[in-house]
Amino acid sequence: MGKGRLEAFSDGVMAIIITIMVLELKVPHEAELHSLQPLIPVFISYLLSFIYLAIYWNNHHHMMHAVKHVNGKVLWANMHLLFWLSLIPIATAWMGENHFSRLPVILYGFILLMAGVAYYILSQTLIRIHSGNKELATAIGSDRKGKLSVVILVLAIILSFVHTWISMALYVLIAIMWFIPDRRIERKLENGQTLES
Amino acid sequence: MGKGRLEAFSDGVMAIIITIMVLELKVPHEAELHSLQPLIPVFISYLLSFIYLAIYWNNHHHMMHAVKHVNGKVLWANMHLLFWLSLIPIATAWMGENHFSRLPVILYGFILLMAGVAYYILSQTLIRIHSGNKELATAIGSDRKGKLSVVILVLAIILSFVHTWISMALYVLIAIMWFIPDRRIERKLENGQTLES
Amino acid sequence: MGKGRLEAFSDGVMAIIITIMVLELKVPHEAELHSLQPLIPVFISYLLSFIYLAIYWNNHHHMMHAVKHVNGKVLWANMHLLFWLSLIPIATAWMGENHFSRLPVILYGFILLMAGVAYYILSQTLIRIHSGNKELATAIGSDRKGKLSVVILVLAIILSFVHTWISMALYVLIAIMWFIPDRRIERKLENGQTLES
Amino acid sequence: MGKGRLEAFSDGVMAIIITIMVLELKVPHEAELHSLQPLIPVFISYLLSFIYLAIYWNNHHHMMHAVKHVNGKVLWANMHLLFWLSLIPIATAWMGENHFSRLPVILYGFILLMAGVAYYILSQTLIRIHSGNKELATAIGSDRKGKLSVVILVLAIILSFVHTWISMALYVLIAIMWFIPDRRIERKLENGQTLES
Questions:
Q1: Chains with ≥3 CB–CB distances under 8 Å to A
Q2: In degrees rounded to 5, what are phi and psi of residue B97?
Q3: Which of A70, B26, C127, D28 has the most crowded CB, counting CB atoms within 10 A?
């Protein structure tokens, strides 16, 4: 089964998720500077979620690039990932509207955690049907970052009971962690070979 | 006429339908656990509809994969299917907001029923222009599941007058029915041949 | 310049337009049959606009299929068409909410008229850069239907001052007019040749 | 790394941004002519933003057409551009609702400015990995228009303190500036060669 439509559908869903989040940035009715103030936490939540979804799209893009074929299990594992990603906008809005109070911060972390688990299941499903495909194995690697993210997310949820800013700092840390090494691997790939479009 | 744009447009519409449903999960204004409680039935409805739309996308994907060409009748049969699918979000929201009371449950079943009929019309339209295409015939099969779903949906609508939970159980049953055999057929296909992307 | 991304972008915009219209079907808060009643005119408007957008997508699909290349003027002519189509959801909602009273019915007709004009400009722009392309000339034809639609729409707007139901009947007439001949041309094409995907 | 999915994802996001802006044109509840009046500034904002997004899509289309491959830095530079574009709908709505008062006009200019900067970063990132690609260098050129736009936008923000209509006039000027030369370059390209799809 070709992977083209799976990529197209996932692109569509991720593009919509990343864009409808902005609808939560409700337009203030006055044109004063102070009327923008309540939007600040909502905006910070939006920025963080935008980056997370960008990371997911980038990783999905890399992984599917190395994939040769898909099957029904992959379709469902992918749908499972999209389901958890689709809940990010509501968790983002709840967290932003309530100025990062405990419960929304925990829910946000929980949904990121489930998305991480779903991504892991998807990658394992793909590896199982591509035994012998070295490119895919390299693209996914030992998934140390994925496992580490899950551990940090669990920690973030627990430490929210100490202070929610610890959780927020850990969410930001994960984003940075994914942002930087991606570029490092990239540079290595570039030196090795230049892939034509 | 090529099938590429038909697939792209259908992917777009289905991706949007599956994602805008989440907009009905209205953000609660308080950050308390009990403020999430009214969201539970809405969330359950969302989950069920997400699975139904995932099933439709998977089936559409399978069927169109075996298709070689399309014509104007197919375009309209496909639009007809998308029309009924586009009504799922509103039926989902109504059902969730009213805690699965009778009328919304019936409307939900009715829209699923019409989508099922529309899918059947689409598959028959495709078969008619592909006489001699064995792959398509296999992909669609005798459509026993499709016919059975329609019967169960009619039953679910009638039995809602006894109790709406019977209807809901039947809706879940159909979802399970489609989820499992899909994977069984898949495994058979995998053993037979591995389709490259 | 390739036509691929133009088609993809247009598909995306048209898919979103056709789907966000359903957001105007606001969920009633009660689960009573009479609470669905105010939705009836909104639903009829939705159905009509869905069919119009389906016709536009089908025609766009047919026309672009015959096109070999595009240029900057085509990109802008296409954007112009998408602009008027993007206003259909708001005109639809206004017409539905106000039970087809005069002003919304006129505005709806005006936007359809402008979309028709925009489509005509797009087709002429395409013909100008494809001199000698017989397939495109056939796909567009003398555009008698397009010109007739514009005349009927102007008539519908004028006759709204007699009664808005005349306008509505004419809007439905145009939809039927496009729906039927499409299939006739199709059948002719089918007899002549079967285009592989 | 192929550029196909990058284009598809960007198309998706830009298609959604350009379309959800229309949701801010809230349907008036009465069917009177005067009830459309408050929509006029919102409509003008919508029209301006639609044209800006069309320009961005056109330029993105031209630039990516000349691109042969992308890397991780390009993915992030592209996401950065999409982020600022995603904020255009809210700035548009705020500006329209407040009848072009100073603060919203400044915010609108600021977001256009940041989008311009993000586009410049994207183009530079692409040039850096395509040393020796003359087609891309031509497509981007010395980016005089891009730099000029940034200067005019800074000016527009400063001059908003004199009068906001000066800023608005400058925003319109930039749109015209991009709209016209695009067609001039195009005509030159057309005379030289006809690119097949």
A1: B, D
A2: -70, -25
A3: A70
